Amino acid sequence: MDIRNWSLDQIMQLPDSVFGNRFLVSVQSHIGAAGTVWDISEIPFPERFVIWELHVSVSRVGVENVWCRIAFGDQLPTTTAQMDGLEPVFNGLGMQGAGPRQIFVTSLTPIILTRLKIPNQATGRRLVSEFGGTGPGAGYCTVSMVVSSIPREIPDCLISV
Are 117 and 14 in contact (CB under 8 A)? Predict the structure, then answer.
């Protein structure tokens, strides 16, 4: 059955199994000392998609504070000002302030959000991250999202008459 004309609210009430294959979109960054680096995913998001999971983890040696910001974008930023202009992946996640917000993560406390079912529209954009730290040392940050596209068709047996 064709469901392209259904509202997003109706589609989101369908069982999880009709949303098709889930796949990973991720970025990984490395800082060798105090500073900021940016990364953009190789894989773009589908036009309309569902976020099922988010994982943010870091490892650091000697870096005092590390943080990351995540957003949707179509180009790799090279400045914090460019990152400021991107759309946050999750409004309200991170330190209070303008988005995309800084998310402080330690090696012992990764962020793992599962059982999400958040619809989104990225129109071919990609996952963008900004990773920074203070003090001497090194750090790595990995941000991974599990996503799937939104179905356009479902089996007729799901709709009772």
Answer: no
Q: State the CATH number of the domain containing residue 139.
A: 2.60.120
Position 159 scores a pLDDT of 76
Which tokens sit at 115?
């059982």
- Each residue of 24-51: b (16+ CB within 10 Å) or e? ebbbebebeeeebbbbbbeebbbebbbb
> Cβ atoms within 10 A of the Cβ of 103, count?
20
| Residue 113 forms part of a structural domain | yes
Q: What is the 3-state secondary structure (H, E, C) of 36-50?
A: EEEEECCCCCCCEEE
Is 70 part of a structural domain of the chain? yes
Maximal C-alpha separation, the chain: 66
Instruction: Quote the number of domains for the chain.
Output: 1
pTM here? 0.89
